[in-house]
Backbone:
């Protein structure tokens, strides 16, 4: 590709020397770096534009209400030794999580199954709604907290439209921990989105 | 004439959920982010993914920006760098090193200096009036002569020179602290 012409040719011969010196500095910078992309792909602009779109209020409320109802039914059935429909986990305990101010429209319930004698593992089923779908390879994590700090991970998950159910297995003694926490899984400190006290 | 908001001011507005500020930030930095990602990831698809992740992180984490610790542009550079490295790690392929910082313009690696310098120049270009930016990009990276640029833009040759002069002057002012 042809090199750009000399600065004098670019700006004309009638530029005062002092100004020309300043223009030369910018000229040198432009010559020293590669070209930027000629344009930003429209699909990228569209994808980024959706990042800031709020979830419709009515649907968040409706989904949150559905999860709250499921939690109530689950607790009721647990009391008489029954199962919630479609759940494969024998619930020993149903834990509704409380949304924090960082996710005011989210709702979640954890069903904790019996501890399997053979392996010593606990089965969990997490039901969650009202969390935004994360872009790219971002995902959420369910954690156990001890003394205000993350102490153990139970698993990671993504969410889709509506309610998301996730099965997890943990081997920890739950009574060793203080709280269940859902946050975005990230190396940096991120706000808690949902949490509940451990009642093992 | 209205004074354009600084990058830092825009990020602070994004931190409180201002979508207009986010849109303006995207307008200013989409091409610099994409250019950085393309240089280090090599293909368009992955570069676009990294760019999208960069702006997702900006929207989500703008509250972590502290203007007293550095410029908005440097903070965005760090966010983009993290997104690019994350994207590269997904494929478990070696990635061309993305320089960690920004603050040290006299870093040891030539490519590190180039990445930071290119970031600054590309970001500054986005702040120029469209008519000046277009003329500069055509003059420096298209291979067209000024006569060809005048013909392409359908403006007199003198207008091309005037816009080039004005654009270079504005760019020099925006990049005052950067020296090649």
Residues:
């Amino acid at each position: 590709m042809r090199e750009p012409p000399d600065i004098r040719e670019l700006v004309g011969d009638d530029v005062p020397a002092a100004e020309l010196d300043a223009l030369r500095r910018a000229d040198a910078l432009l010559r020293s770096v590669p070209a930027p992309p000629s344009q930003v792909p429209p699909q990228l602009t569209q994808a980024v534009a959706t990042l800031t779109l709020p979830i419709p209020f009515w649907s968040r409320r409706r989904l949150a209400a559905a999860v709250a109802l499921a939690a109530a039914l689950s607790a009721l059935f647990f009391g008489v030794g029954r199962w919630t429909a479609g759940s494969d986990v024998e619930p020993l305990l149903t834990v509704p999580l409380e949304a924090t101010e960082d996710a005011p429209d989210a709702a979640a319930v954890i069903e904790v199954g019996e501890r399997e004698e053979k392996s010593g593992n606990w089965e969990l089923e997490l039901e969650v709604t009202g969390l935004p779908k994360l872009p790219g390879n971002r995902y959420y994590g369910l954690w156990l907290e001890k003394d205000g700090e993350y102490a153990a991970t139970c698993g990671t998950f993504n969410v889709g439209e509506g309610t998301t159910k996730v099965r997890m297995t943990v081997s920890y003694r739950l009574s060793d921990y203080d709280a269940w926490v859902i946050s975005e899984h990230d190396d940096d400190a991120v706000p808690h989105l949902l949490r509940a006290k451990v009642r093992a | 004439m209205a004074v354009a908001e600084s990058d830092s001011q825009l990020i602070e507005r994004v931190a409180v959920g201002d979508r207009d500020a986010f849109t303006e930030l995207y307008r200013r930095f989409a091409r610099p982010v994409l250019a950085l990602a393309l240089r280090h990831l090599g293909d368009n698809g992955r570069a676009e993914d990294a760019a999208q992740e960069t702006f997702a992180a900006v929207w989500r984490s703008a509250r972590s920006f502290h203007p007293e610790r550095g410029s908005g542009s440097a903070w965005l550079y760090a966010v983009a760098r993290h997104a690019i490295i994350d994207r590269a790690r997904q494929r478990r392929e070696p990635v061309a090193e993305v320089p960690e910082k920004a603050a040290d313009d006299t870093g040891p690696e030539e490519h590190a200096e180039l990445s930071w310098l290119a970031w600054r120049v590309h970001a500054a270009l986005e702040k120029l009036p469209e008519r000046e930016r277009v003329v500069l990009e055509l003059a420096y990276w298209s291979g067209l002569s000024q006569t060809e640029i005048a013909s392409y833009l359908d403006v007199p040759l003198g207008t091309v020179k005037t816009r080039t002069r004005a654009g270079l002057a504005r760019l020099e002012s925006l990049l005052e602290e950067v020296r090649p």
In short: Helices of chain B lie at 7-15, 19-41, 44-61, 72-90, 110-125, 130-141, 146-153, 157-174. The radius of gyration of chain B is 17 Å.
